[in-house]
């Protein structure tokens, strides 16, 4: 399974990423060993995710989400709210 996820950082910014192990990846981010962007914005909280069977589909979706503006990402999060 492949995951696309959106994290809310401590400064209320949003970070979008891809992983094959969602729980482990979030823990890695919160240990300061994740993406450079999140290191100075800890802790992070998972606010949205999608699952895909094919890696190529997941990576395409990650690019789509990263191109969205903040308001569109917030709408996406609101529609599929997990928290």
Task: Produce the secondary structure layout.
Layout: E1 2-8, E2 14-19, H1 22-30, H2 36-39, E3 45-52, H3 55-67, H4 70-79
Describe the fold and architecture.
A hairpin with a 5-residue loop joins β1 (2-8) and β2 (14-19). The two termini are 21 Å apart. A 3-stranded antiparallel β-sheet has the order 2-1-3, sandwiched between helices. The mean pLDDT is 94. The protein is α+β, with helices and mostly antiparallel strands. Helices cover 43% and strands 25% of the residues. It has 4 helices and 3 strands. The longest helix is centred in the C-terminal third of the chain and has 13 residues, at 55-67. It is globular, with a radius of gyration of 12 Å.
Biggest β-sheet: count, sense, barrel? 3 strands, antiparallel
Q: Rounded to an integer, what's the Rg over CA atoms?
A: 12 Å
Mean pLDDT: 94
Distance between the ends: 21 Å
Secondary structure tally, helices: 4
Which class best fits the helix and strand makeup? Answer: alpha+beta
Sketch the topology as an H/E string, one letter per element.
EEHHEHH
- State the share of residues found in helices, binned by percent: 40-55%
Fraction in beta strands: 25-35%
The shape, in one word, is globular
Runs in which pLDDT lies below 50 for 5 or more consecutive residues are none
Strand adjacency order, main sheet: 2-1-3
User: How many strands appear in the DSSP assignment?
Assistant: 3
């Amino acid at each position: 399974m492949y995951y696309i996820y959106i994290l809310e950082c401590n400064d209320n910014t949003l970070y979008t990423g891809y992983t094959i192990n969602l729980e482990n990846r979030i823990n890695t981010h919160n240990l300061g060993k994740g993406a450079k962007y999140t290191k100075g914005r800890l802790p992070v909280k998972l606010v949205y995710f999608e699952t895909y069977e094919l890696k190529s589909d997941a990576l395409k979706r990650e690019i789509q989400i990263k191109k969205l503006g903040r308001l569109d990402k917030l709408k996406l999060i609101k529609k599929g709210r997990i928290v």
